[in-house]
Amino acid sequence: MLAILIPVLLFLRVIAVAADPSDFRQETNFDEGRTGPSLNVSSCPGYAVVSERQTNQGLVVQLSLAGEACNAFGHDIANLTVEVTYETATILHVNIYDSAKIQFTVPQDVVSLSVGENDPTLKDRSDLEFHHDSNPFEFWISRRSDPDRLPLFDTRTKSLPPTPIPPVIPGDNTTALDGFPLVFEDQYLQLTSALPLDANIYGLGEVLASSGFRRDVGTNGGVGTIQTMWARDSPDPIDENIYGSHPIYLEHRYDAQTRRSKSHGVFHFGAAGSDVLLLTPPVSNTSLIQYRMVGGTLDFYFFSGPSPQKVIEQYGELVGRPTWQPAWGFGFHLCRWGYADVNETRQQVAKMREANIPLEVMWNDIDLYHALRDFTTDPVSFPADQMEAFISDLTANQQHYIPIVDAAIAKLVNASDVYDPYTRGSELDVWMTNPDGSEYLGQMWPGYTVFPDWFANNTRGFWTEALRNWSTAGVNYSGIWLDVNEPSSFCIGSCGTGANLTAATIPTMFFPGTPGNLVTEYPEGYNATIWGPSGNITINGTLTFGNHSFGRLHKKRGLGAAAEPGVNLDSPPYSLHNADGFLSTHTVSTNATHANGAVELDTHNLWGLMEEKATHLSLLELRPGKRPFMISRSTFPSSGRWTGHWLGDNISKWQYMYLSIQGVLQFQLFQIPFVGADTCGFQGNTDEELCNRWMQLSAFMPFYRNHNVRSALSQEPYRWDSVANASRTAISIRYSMLPYWYTLFANASMRGTPPIRALFFEFPDEPELFTVDRQYMIGRDLLVTPVLTPNVSTVDGIFPGQGRVKWRDWYTHAVVDAAISQNTTLDAPLGHINVHIRDGSALLLYDSPAYTIAETRQSPFALLVAQASDGYAFGTAYLDDGESVQPTPNTTLTMKARKGELTIRPQGDFDVQQRLVKITVLGAGRTRPTDIRVNGKPLRNSSNWQFDSGLERLVISGLSLDLNAPISLTWQ
């Protein structure tokens, strides 16, 4: 939400830094690029092995500089230690750190990685092997099961030709890198590994990548990707660093001779700001990945896979698997920045009910606050008693409420000001500080603000207290929305130090929708000559998108040129490719300090994670036994243990609907699977056709929320008849699929298995799928092919399996006549999203999806079985109460089919009260059955079953079967 004001806030920027000049280094001129030393690591000596010794778990190697220090961007560290640990049979740990242990590393109490198996036999039986040379020290990782021992990660790059890396920002005068030596300095670390030419690389985020889900590795001397790991509040730019930092990648290798593939993963565990480059040297048969860090250590974990799914599961085993989601979280959520008061918020709930569009959770943005301050309600527009009554009504209707919590806490502006969260936090000494120990005062919505220091001893207690007080003062929330927690600040430095705190620091006139900052652009593709006032998508049956008559609804007042970025001399000598340039822009300064003595430069990327962990634990304390529900913006490895994520301040354009797919796929790899986009777009004005298609697409994503910016055209799904109809249909399917969604997320929490999958995750040996990111799979059984372009009534999609798999239409159950290894054109009229069922699947569904999740969960069950050609089908369904913290009573149903036979077997201690009332079998043969038996008893009433020979479909209804006991169905 915040980042849409960047142009305005640049105009208003206050440049002030409260720090001693001795803390500063060299000045940076961002017009001219970096000054000072250029990157000339060709003169860096690398390291040589001094000694090594075997351990029970691996190897310890001592290194020293192999020559004269080069001090490229800091001071070379003379002595390093390399610890090689075989953690499990599939996870190998290689940690290169300064022997004195001065460099910052992520504390164990912030990210608690899993402990290895401590098994000495792993050195001989692990699927991954560590190899190294001594002078210079170089290492490579291979797979033991590979007969050729081809390297998966290989720092032996001296034979490569010198590679001038083209400048990516002005003045980035990188010189030829002769041999890509290991560099380990106090403020610059570099490690390079060879990759196969044009490697299939996925991950390295968070990013909206123009190349798609598969990352670009460049060609013939070019840099394909520069992924900067520096959490940043920005309105969803493309190919730039944004909210989260995830230095994990999955590489998928295909052998054209054997037509087989294997995947492995590489994770750099560190919080330091970094650039990760993917490039290809000129006239070379290899590509490269290069890590450049401004601190920390070279702490790497390698995952052997060998399937994409296994790589993701192994990563989850290390960093922690996703938190359990409450069942109600899978419902439809509605929010807007701009619901002016509690009555308007209540009105949305009523209108959704009138339109019969299911609404599970109502949200409020910062409109809720008094003076834009966290943990408050505005006494005029959202009085506490009315909020309490409103939320009580939601609860009575089995619906839920979620408010926003921003990262910064308002500073008191005068002696008569009363704001308990600030006062209490000051008493408990929980705020981040300047180097001299004074309060760090940034700038956010309420004016000058302080920022919680998650390293301070009392911060979580303070946070729990604030959340408790809020919940008992009218805001009885069901979950929490954490926003702008990169963290974001409107100015550079501790700009409130010495300032007039009573001054209006963020005039509300600069909010979107107020004079000076109106949301004025027409919807994308608006045709001013034929569109009606409501933005009709058809005029007399003619689709109207395409004239690109972009304009403005109002003339936007010019704001003048933006001020130059401030100068912070505490930036590291190597200039990260942070899209905001100066690292302290729009966030807390790098010289801000924490209670443990750490500085923000080292811990910046951890801020959002630490807030998420504190909030999750607070919610557990406040609601014992209930699963916390939380959505957060900034994330880091292991965030999925505590929170879900939304994809940030996206834009109401078709491109962003497409980009949401790669965003969701990225976060499956990052072990944060409960993720989704702001449906219909957050920024700008949407239109009927875009919102129609997007409401359908998001219904088949994990987190499903429509969220809109102030003063933009209203986009609640009831606003247009076509969107309302499409939404009702899509939500009905989503709710009927709830047992399937719930099982996928149970598997994610128990095993780390990704619920949403790129096509090649399930079909890894089909190279035509490696770049596909306009389609995706839900689990292993459902293929989604959304419409992502305007003004069309068909969509092209590929059907995996190379002709060996039957795909059936979700709606008609007809087998698709699909082209092999190429696109098939599908009908896709407005209001229809293509979903197809893979053969061999067995899906437990709710037979009568209702308005809320609670009502839907009282519905009887139906079973949909799609048999393969040999009659095989398999599926599981995990069932519990949907809200209790694990461990809790649960039952897993295992559903298996063979030709003419289906069995359902329960295992567990959860009492399944709903009955199974219908079974549909697809692929049941072309001959009408003469004998159908349920639990051995003949089904004599022919009115209870139907058979369609064309569809090979057998439907048995009118059942009332107890799922707590085994069930069998036979037909012949």
TrEMBL record:
Positions of the Glycosyl hydrolase family 31 C-terminal domain: 752-842
Family classification: Belongs to the glycosyl hydrolase 31 family.
Keywords: Glycoprotein, Glycosidase, Hydrolase, Signal
Annotated signal sequence range: 1-19
Lineage: superkingdom: Eukaryota
Coiled coil: none
Protein name: Glycoside hydrolase family 31 protein
PANTHER family: ALPHA-GLUCOSIDASE, P-TYPE DOMAIN-CONTAINING PROTEIN
Domain Glycoside hydrolase family 31 TIM barrel: 323-744
CDD domains for the chain: GH31_MGAM_SI_GAA, GH31_N
GO MF, one annotated term: hydrolase activity, hydrolyzing O-glycosyl compounds
Lineage: Eukaryota, Fungi, Dikarya, Basidiomycota, Agaricomycotina
